[in-house]
Amino acid sequence: MTESSAHTEHADPTSDLWPAPYASGAVDATVTVPGSKSVTNRGLVLAALAAEPGWLRRPLRSRDTLLMAEALRTLGVKIEEGVGPDGTGEAWRIIPAALRGPATVDVGNAGTVMRFLPPVAALADGPVHFDGDARSHERPLHGVIDALRVLGARIDDDGRGALPMTVHGGGALDGGPVEIDASSSSQFVSALLLSAPRFNQGVEVRHVGAKLPSLPHIRMTVDMLRVVGAQVDEPETGGEPNVWRVSPSALLGRDLVVEPDLSNAQPFLAAALVSGGRVTVPDWPARTTQPGDALREIFTEMGGSCELTDAGLTFRGTGRIHGIDVDLGEVGELTPGIAAVAALADSPSTLRGVAHLRLHETDRLAALTKEINGLGGDVTETEDGLHIRPRPLHGGVFHTYHDHRMATAGAIIGLAVKGVEIENVATTAKTLPDFPRMWTEMLGV
Ligand SMILES: O=C(O)C1=C[C@@H](OP(=O)(O)O)[C@@H](O)[C@H](O)C1
Ligand SMILES: C=C(OP(=O)(O)O)C(=O)O
């Protein structure tokens, strides 16, 4: 963007400022949260690879999931967006077909699309070109590219192990054993496992390297593979540590209901904590692999209390917020929201185990430090996280760097600090396009 266009009214919607609503009292609301991004995009991939049609009910409709659906359509899969057979809400029917190239896939800035689809493309009959937002060229993909080459795929990239690249699908892939370093993203492991039932020999993925982040997301991959009939050996059910094996098999077409996105529930639960109020999220699953479930424990330690009933999860704040010392390596995507709450607490916090967030939608550790400090905060980056020492904050612009979770983190701070303006709140469209309306409705403003 040039200097002059920055000053042209509405020339760049991303420069718009959204006045974050201030909570003048305790929030008391029930907030229905749309489907999980991670479940929706896994569900789409598994249904596309199945031997028969399947349904995905209550899918998330957002930029990341529509990019996934569009990419699969480009590869030949039919996805009908409509209402389920019993009229109970949105349901997508996925009709698998022979995967074909040539095709071009736009990954946007969706980690799930840029990592989960190259193995699918390797099964297509022709070249599949991958590209996306500028940030997609910087996010790590080497684990997927290198592994696919070992497993028999031909890939042209510019040698950086990142996008843009072309996967020359050969109609099938050998598969077999492969070692990868997935310490920069658990999605490398998930990507290889999701398509593996369709590889001639299945796959054996061995993670070699520093600690693997986001283990619940790998559990989600394994669980969903098993639901569609795949055979998976993995560390948590008696397998070797850091090794996952998937056998070749046909996948079943299922009728899957997508759980609410518990990471997107985070700002709403945080609103109860920050305002000393009460928020209920209906349909909170009793058992789930979503990392957002950890909020029950984390936000309770930070001063609230929660109760899971038939009505959903009800979270209550007490008016006091405490700092926390916590390793977020397993639940990294919760970091921006936790950092926002921690900046408003009555004692310091240390968030650890999240160095890999430097390679997420933006460098989240740098962005959170800069933006919270820009409002008068005292945050410092550590090697693998953040130290947050709460200070009285003031209003100002909270920049979001095309990161949906930066926008929602800024909105949390805005509940307690007058005059916070969120730059480009529309970036929440990545996973929660309706965020501004949901937020103002929750507050009754
Ligand atoms: O597999 C998934 O659905 C995800 C895995 C995690 O990625 P990383 O392991 O790269 O952090 C998470 O942060 C991301 O939001 C979604
Ligand atoms: C890291 C995230 O997304 P992605 O799937 O693009 O990695 C996220 O949603 O916080």
Automatic annotation (TrEMBL):
It catalyses: 3-phosphoshikimate + phosphoenolpyruvate = 5-O-(1-carboxyvinyl)-3-phosphoshikimate + phosphate. The keyword Hydrolase does not apply. The keyword Manganese does not apply. Its main location: cytoplasm. Keywords: Amino-acid biosynthesis, Aromatic amino acid biosynthesis, Cytoplasm, Transferase. Pathway: Metabolic intermediate biosynthesis; chorismate biosynthesis; chorismate from D-erythrose 4-phosphate and phosphoenolpyruvate: step 6/7. Pfam families: EPSP_synthase (PF00275). Phosphoenolpyruvate binds at residues 37, 111, 139, 187, 364, 405, 430. It is found in: Cytoplasm. 3-phosphoshikimate binds at residues 37-38, 42, 185-187, 214, 333, 360. InterPro entries: Enolpyruvate_Tfrase_dom, Enolpyruvate_Tfrase_sf, EPSP_synthase, EPSP_synthase_CS, RNA3'P_cycl/enolpyr_Trfase_a/b. One of its GO terms (molecular function) is 3-phosphoshikimate 1-carboxyvinyltransferase activity. Residues 24-437 form the Enolpyruvate transferase domain. Monomer. Belongs to the EPSP synthase family. This is 3-phosphoshikimate 1-carboxyvinyltransferase. It comes from Streptomyces lateritius.
